[in-house]
Design brief:
Layout: H1 7-31, E1 39-49, E2 53-58, E3 61-74, E4 79-92, E5 98-108, E6 113-123, H2 126-133, E7 144-152, E8 166-173, E9 176-184
Antiparallel strand pairs: 1-3, 1-9, 2-3, 3-4, 4-5, 5-6, 6-7, 7-8, 8-9
């Protein structure tokens, strides 16, 4: 018997080597992190808020309600005012970690209404949260304040608000809140 591989063996070995090379190439590319989606600035809300109404201690933390008194919003594709009457229903845990549940209505300069439901979280070191929740001015850079809004509107030219995912960053001040919204691309 000859020690040389037959033509069939050579083809099988070549196929196996090609499959192995393809698998190794796919494994290496699968280990690379895919590109993150981009963000596009949508608009900024500047809301005036009332002093908190403290409902009391609940099993999950202190329930507070902060009425939204009004304000403005503006971005590249829309601008207008905040309709008074919304609120932020919060739960504040013992360590200051805050669950945010804000709901309010925006009115564009063209008269269209946009309902906003904005769920999120806010936290910082306990001393910073204590000062913030006491109504003191605190550097916003010290606080993690992020939300995930959902928009509803009947306006045909604003349907893009309901056809995209948005994220937002927040800054809390003694009498107001600034929320910046970005559309995830």
């Amino acid at each position: 018997m000859s020690r040389r591989p037959s033509a069939l063996r050579a083809v099988l070995w070549a196929g196996l080597a090609g499959t192995l090379l393809a698998w190794l190439t796919m494994s290496a590319s699968a280990q690379q992190t895919p590109a993150a989606p981009g963000l596009e600035f949508a608009f900024e809300v500047r809301a005036e808020v009332a002093n908190p109404t403290v409902v009391g201690e609940m099993p999950t933390g202190t329930r507070r309600i902060i009425d939204i008194l009004g304000g403005t919003f503006e971005g590249p594709q829309l601008k207008g005012t905040i309709v008074p009457g919304g609120a932020d229903w919060q739960i504040i845990r013992a360590d200051g970690f805050t669950e945010v549940d804000a709901r309010y209505t925006l009115k564009t300069d063209t008269g269209h209404l946009i309902y906003v439901s904005n769920l999120g979280i806010r936290h910082a070191p306990p001393d910073v949260m204590r000062r913030l929740n006491a109504g003191e001015q605190v550097d916003p850079a010290l606080i993690y304040f992020r939300t995930v809004p959902k928009f509803e509107t009947a306006a045909p030219d604003l349907q893009w608000l309901m056809r995209s995912i948005f994220i937002a960053t927040g800054e809390r001040y003694p009498n107001g809140v600034i929320i910046r919204y970005w559309r995830v691309l």
